[in-house]
Design a protein that fits this description.
Length: about 120
């Protein structure tokens, strides 16, 4: 069994900051890419940012220069530092990871349960 548990969401005023965390636990051998997605009401889930096992990052144009993804491989944790938040960043944020479980030969893709981020104007 593998679980991804997010934390750090909440309500913040426009221009403020939040830091999300996502910790993976279970029978994990290694974790490849990790990332954050978000889904606003009435919209499809969209990619926010990803980070490879080697630390290469990719960002959606809408968050470049404001959001920073990082990871702590020793803790199986990925972070999302969100600065200069805008009302349009309001969404449920989901953690995603490609994980190789102990005793398995292929990775599987896992999602967290989501954490709400609300930015007031």
């Amino acid at each position: 069994q593998v679980q991804l548990v997010e934390s750090g969401g909440g309500l913040v005023q426009a221009g403020g900051s939040l830091r999300l965390s996502c910790a993976a636990s279970g029978t994990i051998f290694s974790i490849n890419a990790m990332g954050w997605y978000r889904q606003a009401p009435g919209k499809q889930r969209e990619l926010v940012t990803t980070i490879t096992g080697g630390g290469s990052t990719n960002y959606a144009d809408s968050v470049k220069g404001r959001f920073t993804i990082s990871r702590d491989n020793a803790k199986n944790t990925v972070y999302l530092q969100m600065n200069s938040l805008k009302p349009e960043d309001t969404a449920v944020y989901y953690c995603n990871a490609d994980i190789l479980r102990s005793g398995f030969i292929r990775t599987s893709n896992y999602w967290g349960q989501g954490t709400q981020v609300t930015v007031s104007s």
